[in-house]
What we know:
Layout: E1 5-9, H1 20-26, H2 28-41, E2 44-48, E3 51-55, H3 59-85, H4 91-118, H5 126-135, E4 139-141, E5 153-155, H6 157-176, E6 181-182, E7 188-190, H7 191-197, H8 199-202, E8 204-209, E9 216-218, H9 219-233, H10 239-250, H11 257-266, E10 281-284, E11 288-291, E12 297-301, H12 306-311, H13 313-319, E13 326-335, E14 350-360, E15 377-381, H14 383-387, E16 393-396, H15 397-402, H16 409-425, E17 432-436, E18 448-456, E19 459-468, H17 472-481, E20 487-504, H18 506-513, H19 517-528, H20 531-544, E21 546-549, E22 552-555, E23 559-573, E24 576-583, H21 584-595, E25 596-599, E26 602-608, E27 619-623, H22 628-643, E28 648-650, H23 657-666, E29 671-675, H24 677-682, E30 684-689, E31 695-699, H25 703-711, H26 717-723, E32 726-727
Parallel strand pairs: 6-13, 15-17, 27-28, 27-29
Antiparallel strand pairs: 1-3, 2-3, 4-5, 7-12, 8-9, 8-10, 11-12, 13-14, 14-24, 15-16, 17-18, 18-19, 19-24, 20-23, 21-22, 25-26, 29-30, 30-31, 31-32
Helix pairs in contact: 3-4, 6-16, 9-10, 9-11
Amino acid sequence: SHQRYHRFPLSGFIRVKLNEKIERKWGKKKLRSMLPHLIKKYTIKSTQPKTFDVIMPSADELQDEIDALNAQITKQGSLVRELKKQSSSNAEDIASAVEQLKKLKIEAETLRKQKEVADPTKAFNRKVFDELILRKMFIVPSFEIHGGVKGLFDLGPPACALKAAMVDVWRKHFVLAESMLEMECTCLTPEVVLKTSGHVERFTDLMVKDPVSGECFRADKLLEDVIDELLEANPDMPNEEREEHLRVQRQADAFSPAELDEQLAKYGCKAPSGEPYGSSFPFNLMFKTSIGPEGTSVGYLRPETAQGLFVNFRRLLDANSQKMPFAAAQIGLGFRNEIAPRSGLLRVREFCMGEIEHFVNPDDKSHPNFSSVADKELVLFGRDDQLGSGKTKTISIGKAVATGLVNNETLGYFMARTQLFMERIGMDPARLRFRQHLTTEMAHYACDCWDLEIQSSYGWVECVGHADRACYDLDVHGKATKTPMVATLKLDEAREVEVAKLKFDRKALGKTFKADQRVVSGALETLAENWTDFEPIATALETEGKATVDGFEIAKDMVSWTKTTKKVHEIKFTPSVIEPSFGMGRILYSLLEHCFYQRDADEQRCVMKFKPAVAPQKCAVLPISSGDEVNAVVDEIAAELMDSDMATRVDKSTASLGRRYARADEIGVPFAVTVDFDTLADGTVTLRERDSTTQIRLPKADVTRVVFDFVHGRLTWEEATAKYPVVQVKED
Length: 732
């Protein structure tokens, strides 16, 4: 590694001794730009006249500083969100808070770059990775020959097979193992459903149009860009004036449509046609369409798969014989009309999701199988740690639930099961963590939320959300459709409960509510089933003479009541929902990064270390020569492997054996069978393991069974090398 002590003569010349690998990777120019920061920031010891030794911190020490800064960034980000929400906040306070947040992020990014220099072995070679992904056709831009479309990608043969295997493991791990009810709901969703769920109102950004071409742009980004251009063009601008422009820029995403229009006009922001932009308007990020030829029925491509499960709750409950708790699952496409898609598969317009809705009694969120995962240790990043030390904690999920860090057993159970799924498909456990949502991030109805984040070259990326959504979703759909979304708890013994006995003035109700009379009385009767629910209504009617129920204002003379008790043998309740939501595209991309590496002996040899269970192809079969006898054995072995449902790669090209091994390594084939001249003599072949490159010799009749056992986790390579002789084969 690079030397820990670097000498800096006072003459101004900086002399740094680095090994060739670091210098080749980072370049002298980049390293030189970072050294002044090191001189300023870290301890300087005088060792002789006109010479200083700068003690560079280790990667671990730098990580400690990064963690502390991340905690400050989280706290400051939370403060900024709160200030923007509060109408009483003034612009100067918000501007100051945003400026501080930017400074912290810049400092953290500088430290991250220093850490990469301090520990280059952990640096990710994105250039080589991207070339491999494109060259081997894992992922390619959609409609490439027509110029492509941002945010749309096609999965090539290797990634298509990888995703199919990953989804198959997901189904076995969750749907089959947990006896979930799987559905496949339509992607096309009527507007009324998404209005009820809140998506029509929430999924919006402000846009402007070029009046000539009709091209749309995100208004706040245009304002930010034009201010950047102004500041770059005027480096000598007085500080006071510069700060005023920066204040406007920082507020860009908080302006109303009228305020944005005013600012765009003030800065002379023109469309590509040269004309002023049209007025700002809200742009919904869902893909809107019409259902039917008349064009009168509005629909959207679904932004998530969950709504189809919520609206089918009653039928799902019937399918489960009215038993609670139970889970429903769905895997399919979601769509979001991203304005600025970026970061490859991390932010796209069409994406695969796997969502689970676990319906549970809100008064009992225990899980019958929790004990099976209670000892599983997870890396948790709780909200207190995010705002405090910036450090994660490794803790068993049982302890996390017992101490209240994780809200309940069912939420904790699915967090642990998600960790096990990630490990099962080959994700690096050292680069997984669960981050708890801050209170400023959570929806008002949510009880607790944890995101599984995966570390990639883009940083920590949210890939699986775990949310306790309480009763919100079933409540809103039930109220909008006047459909009772309730389950029943059968009691072992009858229980006395306090209720309200109601008497309606039907004439007064009918006169005021007309056709909605039954809706109002039904809502009151539902509340009356439990005195605790009805008591606030009774209090309001007594003190104020009126109360609001489901949007209807009820007067005191419309209903009278008596508090009483009754014996009940069952209790009806609206279930809470615990929702793990998997972004399959993000998981797929993260898995590609986690499995990519370059062999130490030759950096040009790239390898995808997919686990056999998810590898696109399980085995390669290679002939050592092009003779007919050898090729006949190759075809025989390949046919047997494929008859056992294992995708097989046959490479009969004239390239060297080492080159053909390398080709298989690049697409992650875990095993390779080589048919040589000894095969014709004694019926044995060699079997190569991808990562160790070691080989064993075994009878060709054993190949299918051995590879099958590898794929299904019944046999390890260590066990195989103990059973069969290891052979030395040169791969050049």
